[in-house]
Amino acid sequence: MSLRFFSLCIVLIASTTAEAQSKLTFKDKFMYTDVSVANKRNVHNVLALIDTGNTLCMVDSTFAVDSCGVKENDLKTVLVNESQVKISSVTIDSIHFCGKTYCKVYCLIADLLGIYQKYAPKFIVGANILKSGAWKFDMERSIIEPYNANKRAAGTVFKWKNHKNYSDVAIDYIIFDSKIDGKKTRFAFDTACKNNKLQRNFYTGATEKIQKETANIENKLSIKTVDLCRDVKFKIDKSEFTLDFVIGDYNIGLLNIEFLQGRSFILNYKKQTLELL
After folding, report:
1. Tens of each residue's pLDDT in the chain, 277 residues
2. Which residues contact 66 (CB under 8 A, 6 or more apart)?
3. φ, ψ for residue 71 (rounded to 5)?
4. Which domains are present in the chain?
5. Quick one: signal sequence residues (predicted)?
6. Roughly how many angstroms between the first and final C-alpha of the chain, as a whole number?
7. Which phi and psi angles does 4 have, rounded to 5°?
8. How far is it, in rounded angstroms, from Cα 57 to Cα 257?
9. What kind and span of H or E run contains 184?
């Protein structure tokens, strides 16, 4: 059976049809798209969160056990994040995403529903799938599709760095060098981040206290008082942007999808570029 399954994956990977286009759904500043999760003869179509800030794909633990046939003895414990949080992992038979089937996908398993509650997806598309090539995010048509990574750029191109340039950031993080008021800083482009964030003790401008929903893999969703910085101007290369930021506790800043102001873009993992169209 495993040989037949492998052959099926090869056929599906080779297929290049109109099905390569996948609809984008936007909700609460997050981007979602349809994926098919297949494991142990179980196949489910789910709305998945696209997460450029997650090195690995992630599956909700309840969905994994109740729908995907994942057993306790399939799980392995791994450590994630700088705080060394323990979390389970498993290899899922296949993930079908944007017209291509990825076989034997290594995924983290977490209680996403318990942590993120109303925002919890059943599946998160991480960088271990996204870094396979380049992707065009067409905001006008609300579509994501594979893109020719070797095609010559026609728009504004931002070159990014990653853990090979900065050893203190997670593997496959998309890092943009930036400046705020002439001071150098770094941002991770994280499409699964609800709020844009600046690192603590970096920003010297005026702030105000507000109530915000916050959650991460270590802490479930709650309301917290945070410092908000309004209309902060920052530069990436020669382009200037203005956004509101909250003050976070990371060693780098975070940019969510708001950074692109609704513009279509190409995320090219092969060339490590983001091209604004």
Report:
1. 434 434 344 444 434 444 689 999 999 889 999 999 999 999 999 999 999 999 999 999 999 999 999 987 777 766 665 555 667 889 999 999 999 999 999 999 999 999 899 889 999 999 999 999 999 999 999 999 999 999 999 999 999 999 999 999 988 999 999 999 999 999 999 999 999 999 988 888 899 999 988 888 778 888 999 999 999 999 999 999 999 999 988 889 999 999 998 899 999 999 999 999 9
2. none
3. -105, 160
4. 2-135 (2.40.70.10), 156-276 (2.40.70.10)
5. 1-20
6. 45
7. -65, -40
8. 19
9. strand 183-189
Write the single-letter amino acid at 142.
S
Joined tokens for residue 180: 């705020």
Q: Report residue 217 as tokens.
A: 């893999």
pTM above 0.85, yes or no: yes
- The residues pairing with 227 across neighbouring beta strands, listed in sequence order, are 209
Structure tokens at 107: 């995924």
Cβ-based neighbours of 126, under 8 Å, separated by 6 or more: 51, 54, 55, 56, 57, 58, 107
Structural tokens at position 125: 């598309």
DSSP reduced 3-state for 105 = strand
Strands 123-125 and 42-50: parallel
Supply 11's token pair: 């056929």
What tokens does 32 get?
Answer: 């979602």
Closest C-alpha among 246, 251, 258, 232 to residue 179: 232
